[in-house]
User: Which sequence fits this backbone?
């Protein structure tokens, strides 16, 4: 019973014998690299890069449901990308625009 | 005029997500090009290396997906080039890792 389910996954049109599996798998690397970069100080983050990551994640979440074959691996990875991108953006924005107020009030 | 009409109504045209997905991916390329002016100590080795693997597999994906997506293929080919360049800048800045020194002679 379990083997037939595994077989079904193995032979799936978006399964591990196809690029439809490996492209999203490599894409997980982007989210993982971004999570590793949570430790980076916000000054070293790149606005263009994080905006690209977020926007791609959002748009591709939709794209992955309308291509053939429909690709849930791709869907989930793009949702994760949008999530990590939004978090990194919030870190950098908070640092750039809200820390200024703190330092300004200290100066006063 | 006819070309424009064909393009607008194409199954991979601007009325479809098959167009806007790849357009969004050009964001990576533009971001990378903007970042080529940044000093290498601001580059993320992790992210750049991952992008190289990602665009390599993305080129194949764009070719094999239904419908075949040439715009996406062009995007990933360009991104691969820029990311490899950025990776070389980062690697040069990092220098040779200690573990490889015996090999360097």
Assistant:
């Amino acid at each position: 019973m379990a083997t037939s389910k595994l077989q079904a996954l193995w032979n799936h049109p978006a399964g591990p014998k196809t690029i439809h599996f490996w492209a999203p798998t490599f894409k997980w690397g982007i989210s993982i690299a971004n999570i590793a970069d949570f430790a980076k100080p916000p000054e070293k983050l790149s606005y263009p890069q994080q905006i690209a990551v977020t926007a791609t994640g959002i748009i591709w979440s939709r794209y992955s449901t309308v291509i053939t074959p429909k690709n849930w691996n791709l869907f989930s990875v793009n949702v994760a990308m949008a999530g990590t991108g939004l978090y990194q953006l919030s870190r950098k924005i908070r640092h750039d625009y809200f820390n200024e107020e703190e330092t300004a009030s200290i100066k006063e | 005029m006819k070309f424009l009409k064909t393009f607008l109504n194409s199954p991979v045209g601007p009325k479809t997500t098959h167009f806007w997905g790849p357009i969004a991916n050009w964001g990576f390329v533009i971001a990378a090009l903007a970042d080529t002016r940044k000093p290498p100590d601001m580059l993320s080795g992790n992210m750049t290396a991952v992008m190289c693997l990602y665009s390599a597999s993305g080129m194949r994906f764009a070719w094999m997906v239904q419908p075949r997506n040439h715009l996406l293929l062009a995007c990933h080919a360009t991104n691969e080039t820029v990311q490899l360049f950025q990776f070389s800048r980062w690697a040069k800045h990092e220098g040779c890792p200690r573990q490889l020194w015996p090999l360097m002679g």
Chain A touches chain B at residues 18-20, 22-23, 25-27, 29-30, 32-34, 36-37, 40, 44, 46, 48-49, 51-53, 55-56, 58-60, 62-63, 66-69 (CB under 8 Å). The longest helix of chain A spans residues 72-107.
